[in-house]
Amino acid sequence: MKILRKRFILITILFSIFLVYLFFLIFPLVFVGVPTALFYVQNEDDMAHNVFVNIVNEQNMTVFNTSYFLHGNESIYVDRELRWNVPFPSTFVTWSDGEYTFHFTVDNNVSDQIARDINQYESVSVDIESNQNQSEKIDIIIKILTV
After folding, report:
1. What is the pLDDT of residues 8-49, one digit of tens each?
2. Which of 74, 109, 120, 139 would be 35's cystine partner, CB 3.0–4.6 Å?
3. CB count, 10 Å around CB of 7?
């Protein structure tokens, strides 16, 4: 009888923990909506460009590293994982709270960066434009979008 009671208590505790975790995962999605994209890159130029994106955390460790080939007037966005909604730090959550530095490099030539303490309601937006005064010059414009 004592063994059944201990099992029941253990199962109840584990189930309660699971429900609390599920609550923090589902509740924000229902009432606030899906998190915004992690970042956007928009090529507002008529020429194609190779864009390299590197994101490092506060410990200067790379957490995201990839490149994109964008044709003229093409854009991409990178979604963040749904687990971003968990309000407490955890080892199994990929994007924890803290400051991240976003490095953007266009055509292995022009680069810019921004350091932000991002949250699920902010996105980093990058616009690639040709400088009107110099046909060979490319500008990178970084903005923060808040929903």
Report:
1. 999 999 999 998 887 777 776 677 666 678 889 999 888 899
2. 120
3. 10
Contacts of 106 by beta carbon, 8 Å cutoff, 6+ apart: 49, 50, 51, 52, 128, 138, 140
Give the predicted TM-score (pTM) of the model.
Answer: 0.67
Ordered strands of the 62-70 beta sheet: 62-70, 49-56, 100-106, 110-116
Give me the count of residues in the chain: 147
Amino acid at 27: F
Digit-coded pLDDT (tens) for 42-75? 998 888 999 999 988 888 888 889 999 999 899 9
Distance CA 40, CA 56 (A): 17
Residues 26-51: b if buried by 16+ CB within 10 A, e if exposed: eebeeeeeebbebbbbbbebeeebeb
